[in-house]
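Figure S7 source data.
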Amino acid sequence: MLGGGKEFNSILAIFQPQFAGMNRAIFLDRDGTLIAEKNYLCRPEDVRIFPATPIGLKRLGDAGFKLFIVSNQSGVGRGYFTLADVENVNQHLCRELARGGVRFERIYIAPEKPDEPSHGRKPSPQFLFDARGEFGLNLADSFMIGDKLSDLECGWNAGVKKSILVRTGYGAELEREAPEQISRAVVVDDLQGAADWILGSLSSLNE
Ligand SMILES: [Mg+2]
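Tokens for the predicted magnesium ion complex:
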């Protein structure tokens, strides 16, 4: 057996340049992006996964992207629910998506209220920097996907290749109301559209 997957990937990257892309990642907002937006969602039974989510993520994972969730959960800081509630919801989401062969490397949560000091509350890029440090990622080959301006800004602040806005959640409203603020973003319908765009951009680069 080979030891760590990371070492194996590094060896592949040295000898076979096409595997160099295995240090790339997709950073995903949770509410409104992977699952239906619901104000202060805190119960696993209220999780509604978009049909496009497992399919889109599986395709991205199969293409060698490491998957991360980066989620602001100010409901914790506001006292509406606990971090344990957030973890229950996340575990449920991970279990459901695992059935479709989707695996997340890490889930980053910012539990603070908007006006509190925070380690990584979006639009801060800090969790993406943390992931780069821990997983040896190349952020310039990575993508951020979300339904709010703070998601897009988080990606831009981190220097990702592209921030992608989905029209689920608050995305369609943002596209309609603030087109100039999102002009640097790619806009797609959902996670399947995001996978189409990302994988298409890779193949056009390789031509
Ligand atoms: Mg969202």
